[in-house]
Amino acid sequence: MPPSRSRRRSPPPSDPRPGQQGKAQKKSRNLRKNIPAVIIAAVIATLLDRAVMYLRTPAPAPGLPWPGAASDPLHAQELHALHHQPSEDFCAAEPPLVCAHGGDSSDGAPRNTLEAFQAALQQGVPCLEVDVARTSDGRLVVLHPRDLAQLLGGSSAAGGAAGGAAADGGSSGADNEQQQPLPQVGDYSWEDLAALRWQGGERVASVEDVLRLAVSAAQHITLDARTHTSKGGEDDSKALAAQLVDLVAQTGCSQCLVWAKSDALVKQVKELSPDQPVGYIVMNETAAAREAGMHRLLRLPRAEVAALHHSMASGEVMQKLHAAGQRVHAWTANTAGMMRAVLDAGVYAVVTDHPRHLLAALEARLHICRSRKEAAAAEAAAAAAAAADADVPVVTEL
């Protein structure tokens, strides 16, 4: 019988080779040890992306000086915040509408003229705010009492300084009206007003002419109706409401919104045309406004819009109005600080005398919001990849 040979027994197939299990465990430990480094690298990459994004953010519109900026030490700081520091609420909401208050007067066209509204539309401003008043003979015209005062002999009337009505700096002008009574459109006939000219030859516009111009080009049109009480004590709110409803129907202005400081007029419009969107003015900046109850929220529950003075756009106020289903239009935001505050509050629309500035700020902010979203997605993907690597099972080689 041949001598027996000793044979090395092969390890069972299920057992790892000597030392292989230790190598796999070591590899797993090293991988887990490297997870913080992976996350740190992702964070650094995100910060670098944001720095590049900041440098590429569109700058404020060139050649458009901000009124009063030279005398405001906080302007540069507010301008930076307006363009480069959008809030999370702003980024989470739909981009607000930019509403040109009386059109765009950046190039010298007087406010509330056809030329100013045309300029706004040519600049791509999606929303117009139009001051509406009724003449003594029943014509609807686009004119504010301050504009009328200037046309009748103020600094921007025919023969005076160019450029149209002075900006109100975000104020409603109520204080000025109390200090010095302004002429009222309702005391003049259409013939009287049609004879007036601004320095550049611009005429007083009719509401119909403005709607014919804008109805096919503007995304949204706000008609700010201004009532008049005659010397005999007769109020024109009912007649004004009826004419507005008829004119909106005649011009096919489905994007028209009617609001007013007169709650009675707003209610009348809603009674005459239940489907017509309306808004009511909310403000507390003057004693007269507070005494009239204009500071009260939700006082017109059927209204679709609350026209909120920019100074009242707080988180609490916004929450109440949104909970009631009312959209918020903030007015009149004319400084970088005012614009920043109402944008960060998450309003639906912003009325301003400087629509080009606000459009530039929106472009910059939306760019930053998109970059934040992309950076967050990349960071989440990196973290998910690191977590997936950490959970890779140990594979035993046979």
Name a few traits of the molecule:
single chain; 398 residues; TIM Barrel; 8-stranded parallel beta barrel; 14 helices; glycerophosphodiester phosphodiesterase; GDPD4
Please provide a written account of the structure:
The two termini are 36 Å apart. The protein has an 8-stranded parallel β-barrel with strand order 1-2-5-6-7-8-9-10, surrounded by 7 helices. Helix 9 (237-251) links the parallel strand 5 and strand 6 (256-260). Residues 155-178 have low confidence and may be disordered. The chain has 398 residues and is an alpha/beta fold. The chain has a domain at 85-362: TIM Barrel, CATH 3.20.20.190. It has helices at residues 20-56, 75-84, 88-92, 114-122, 145-151, 174-179, 190-194, 207-214, 237-251, 263-272, 287-291, 315-323, 336-345, 355-390, and strands at 97-101, 127-134, 140-142, 205-206, 220-225, 256-260, 278-282, 305-309, 327-331, 349-352. This is glycerophosphodiester phosphodiesterase. Residues 96-362 form the GP-PDE domain. It catalyses: a sn-glycero-3-phosphodiester + H2O = an alcohol + sn-glycerol 3-phosphate + H(+). It comes from Chlorella sorokiniana. The chain crosses the membrane at residues 35-55.
